[in-house]
Amino acid sequence: MSIEALADYTTQQWNAVAEKVMANIPPGLFINGKHVDALDGGRIASINPANGQLVAEVAAGSARDVDLAVASALKAFRAGDWSRMAPRDRMAVLYRWCELIDANAAELAMMDTLDMGKPIADMAGVDLPSVVETIQFMAECIDKIEGSVTNTEWDVMHCVLREPLGVVGAISPWNYPLLMATWKVAPALAAGNTVVLKPAEQSPLSVLKLAELFVEAGGPPGVFNVVNGLGEVAGQALALHEDVAKITFTGSTAVGKLMLQYAGQSNMKKVSLECGGKSPQIFMADLEDMDRAVAAAYNGIYANMGEVCNAGSRLLVHESIHDDFVERFVTAGKDAYVPGDPMNPETNMGPLVTREDQQRVLSMIDAGAKEGARLAFGGCVPEGLESGAYVSPTLFTGVNNDMSIARQEIFGPVASVMTFKTVEEAIAIANDTIYGLAAGIWTRDLNLAMRLVRAVQAGTIWINSFDEGDMTQPFGGYKQSGHARDKCMESLLSYTQSKSAWFRLSGQR
Length: 509
Ligand code: NAD
What we know:
By secondary structure, the chain is α/β, with parallel strands linked by helices. 39% of the residues lie in helices and 19% in strands. The protein has a 7-stranded mixed β-sheet with strand order 2-1-9-8-7-10-11, sandwiched between helices.
């Protein structure tokens, strides 16, 4: 089996995979190379949001489990089997890990789909290939990490070494359960650290398998540990832990701010944050291809049910093209994403992650209408799908940037169209947000595009495209979208620290 082969799976085959997965749920924690239960017997339930049925109950770790996992990671780090392993050997383990992920692709894909409702086609076509690409990229970089020799006086040799940090605590979200965890775990491991991962409570399954496969690939036990559990229990214990050298967090801005507090209350550990977004796309009157721009607009907000940190939720359209833009958006975008059974390979939109999230998104839609925005389509639970946490693709027009739907991260399939008259106004609206994760710019005029690139405060800006990239592209935020950079060599280096070694020599002259 391989990731590529998944493209030919039928719903029936996927149902068989689901049965197999549900019959073999591990206890819920992976510590020191073994699947184990929580010491205090805590439990969290994973509910399939497509039908409300129980997928599994897994262990919910407490501070005691976190202590055990961190102790195991610290012991493994100090033992040096991983942290001092020759770069080529560490690379070989990561490449073997990729092969095993490929061989177990169906099971891994199914776990995320069952946990959080992502269409299985997305798991096969987007998430899993990206997981493998991330690990491969980080493996390729291992022996490219360099220190330096600086220019000193004659009797001195000074060099800068790059060393791993120690135990890295990773806290990840549920919207791309495997991929967001991998964006943290792969560079942390590649740099020689050991890891304790606390996944989101909504998606506990797939990372357990990921950790198991790491050990099968030759990763020493204790190097990659997983503690499932509640954020305010296991997550907090990890972020407050005195033996954790760095917390790498992806999630909401509110919880990201807590991470900074936890670091200050404990050992001043390094903190890297990937948080929320409210990304603008700016459509200038001279854009080259309206249909392509409109497609990028609806794909940018409806893909992954809008549960995307950089989702293009604010569509800033020049007033002279507004009517044409909206008309084409309604014609092409209304039915581009059809909510349905995520196990059907034809489905491109699943449910939201939980019933509570569905209710939260519906109430934000309600608020948008009450505040005066015009509902062009959607805004409801799709007919026939009432037993799942579904929300129809939704478009609001007549939005202004003070409305709650323009200010708050909705994290659902809700687009808001606003108009502007001048470039200055577009820049002001684009930047009038606490977030700064990403932005899109659509214009034929590359001088204007460059002016906007300079003026818009966002970590990633796409010009005449949206949501593209590869592993060389740093991904991360400005402002309250956080300050980390994932993917890229910069990410790998952020899991290292420099050490200066000053050699006073004699007999050199
Ligand atoms: P969340 O902040 O609720 O949870 C994220 C993680 O933090 C989970 O593992 C959770 O258990 C843990 N957590 C919650 N409270 C905690 C606490 N008090 N102490 C320690 N840990 C705690 O976010 P979510 O709902 O899982 O994910 C959605 C959010 O993630 C959105 O805001 C989205 O924009 C953001 N996100 C950002 C990026 C990015 O790269 N910038 C990528 C994906 C998601």
